[in-house]
Every structure is written in C-alpha cells, then in structure tokens.
Amino acid sequence: MPFCSTRCDYCAFATWTDRGHLVDRYLAGLATEVDRAVAEGLPPLTSVFVGGGTPTLVPAEGLVGVLARLPLAPGAEVTIEANPDSVTAESLRTYRRGGVNRMSFGVQSMREHVLAALGRTHDPDNVRQAVAWTREAGFETFNLDLIMGAAGESVADWASSIDDVLSLDPPHVSAYGLTVEPGTPLAADPDRYPDDDDQADKYLLTDERLGAAGLRWYEVSNWARPGHECRHNRLYWEAGEYLGFGCAAHSHRGGRRWWNLRTPERYLDAVDAGASTEAAGEDLDEGTRRLEALQLALRTREGVPAAALDLDDPSLEGLVVVDGDRVVLTPEGRLLANEVAVRLRTDVAVGVGRRAQAGGGGTGGTSKT
Asked: Which phi and psi angles does 189 have, rounded to 5°?
C-alpha cells in the first residue's frame, strides 16, 4: 500500500503522500492482480503481510475485500501494518471480522521529542489507545516497532521507550537501528546521522530488558513471547518462497527473484492493460541461494550449521556460541552480524523453504533489518 499522509525523514520506501485519488483504482488493481494469480494456480497461503506505506489509510472494507480473494491455508497468519494514529476502534473490528489476526504498529519511540525528530505524526497516547482498541477488537497477537538512534535520543530516552512499550504487554517487539538511506532528508543532514556506538548500547539494553520481560529474541531485530513469532517474516529468514502484489512488491519463487513496477501509475496501467507488472528480476544460481540462505539463517536464533564457520578463527571469539550442531550469534555477535557473515563457508547447505506466501511491498520486519 503506497499511500502515506506524511513522509518520514528516514523513509526510502515506495510511498507517496499525493496519490490519495488513486486509492479506489489501486484496490481494484490489486484485486485484479490477485485474481490472475489465483487463476494461475496460487496455492493456499500460510501467511499474508500488508505493508506500506500506510495500509490503514485505505478504507478498511476495501482492504479486507482484497484479502478475501486470497486462498488461505487453515490457521494462516494475516498481518496489517499501521500507524498508531491511523486506526480506529471500528476499522480494527473490520479487519478482525475480515480475517486479519495480527497487527503491526509503527511506534518508533514513546518520547515525543524523538518522534518529532523522526518526522512521526503520532504521540504516545495514540499508541496506548491503538493497543487498547486492538485487544478490544479480539486480536490475540500484535507487534510494536521501535527505531533506535534518532537525533536527540539519549540512552535514557530509549530505556524509557522500552519500559513504556513493555507496560503495554506486547506479544512481539521489533527494534531496528535507524539507517541512513540515500535520497532521504536524513541523508542530506549529517548532523542527524545515528552513532554506531550509541545504537550498540541501546541494542544491548533492548535485548536485556525484553528478555527479562519474557520476550525472546528470534532474529537480530525481533523479540516475541513463545508462539507469537511472525511466521511471515520467518519465511524470509528461511529463504522461503513468497509472492508480492502491488507496486514495488518483491517476489521469490523457483530460484528467481523479481519486483513490480515502482510507481502506482505505471503499475495500474500495466494491470489495466493486462500486461506484466514486473519491472525486473534475477535468476539465482545454486551458490547464491546457498550463501543467501546461510546469511539469513545466521541472523536467527537457530543459527547456522557449525561447519559453516571456522570455529578456530580468533576473530569470532565472543561473537558466536556453539549450540549442539549449530552456531548462534551472541548479543555482541548480533551487533557485528555482517562481519560474521563474510566468514561463512559457501559449500555448506541449509534448507530452503518452498511454501508460497503473499507479501507486501513495504515494511514488515525484514525490510527494516
């Protein structure tokens, strides 16, 4: 869903603030793209993630109408991303009645001056109200997203945000380091760039406090109570297969990765013409797939096969631990996951998932990691 009311200073996603007039046409285009995939034999989906942009800016009935066209496997996970100030009690009830069973809120911070530095429009009270409405609507699981490292955010500010989020008893929390993306207002303002050491301190504090509260890390930037891990995002980290619908949405299937046309207008013109919505793609050879699978698995609690790393390498000391026949990152290792990843042996195989999923074109855990 490529629609936003405002654009955050750090955002490089395919979103627009001036395309509201396209909402109805866009929902119709999505329905057409989904129907075509179903006609071509789309299998039952084990998860769906509606990302953005801000999916909750489009009419709730229209969105669940598109979702209703997807073939779902029994017990499928269906997630919608939302800003805390873009939902109402009624829209959340509509989502729940329409089969959505998980919400993911872009909280980012519980400190007003930090939210202002990030260009966010909500305040902490919006977050508390949205969580209350979510529970009242019957959702048993939801996620709260946080971003660490904004300009003017002290370690004490971050600790307070973590504590305030934990007071809401969330089943799942994602916490990402602020990144500088080319072409964004943040990129043009070096004085606001995040500090690596500051983010490292905040990450270790996050892992400690969330772990003490019963939320266990299962991917570098994600913590959950048992049974509340995001199944859709786990599929990405397992190098599984997924299908993306909508502009700029990415797909991965049968050893091939491709992505849709980026702008809503070009995407919709292709749908209306009965043409392919694909912008470009790439075929992945076996070596590339194996390496990517290892790199993704390294980020998770399950880690990689022990044979994938030279455990006698002194540079890995303190960064990994051996757990049976697997190697898992320590908290300090998660801070240097990329450094560990370049030491992976590419001749070690890991399983690659084969389940087709429906994915969004925007955020949702993986795109922020």
From this structure: -130, 80
Full set of structural domains in the chain with CATH = 20-237 (3.80.30.20)
Report helix, strand or coil for 152. coil
pLDDT, one tens digit per residue, over 287-326 is: 999 999 999 999 999 999 999 999 999 999 999 999 999 9
Contact 73, 108 (CB under 8 A): no
What are the C-alpha distances in Å from 80 to residues 61, 105, 151, 219?
13, 9, 29, 20
Nearest to 1 by CA among 84, 66, 85, 90: 66
Q: CA-to-CA distance for 3 and 94, rounded, in angstroms?
A: 20
Rg from Cα positions in the chain: 20
Say whether 21 sits in a helix, a strand or coil. helix
Instruction: Show the beta-strand stretches assigned E in the chain.
Output: 45-50, 72-82, 102-108, 142-148, 172-177, 216-219, 222-224, 243-244, 250-253, 256-260, 278-283, 304-305, 320-323, 326-329, 358-359
Produce one character per residue of 241-268: b if its CB has 16 or more CB atoms within 10 Å, e if not: bbbbbbbbbbbbeeeebbbbbeebeebb
Its pTM stands at 0.92
Q: Establish whether the linkage from the previous residue to 244 is cis, with ω within 30° of 0.
A: no
pLDDT in tens, 209-260: 999 999 999 999 999 999 999 999 999 999 999 999 999 999 999 999 999 9
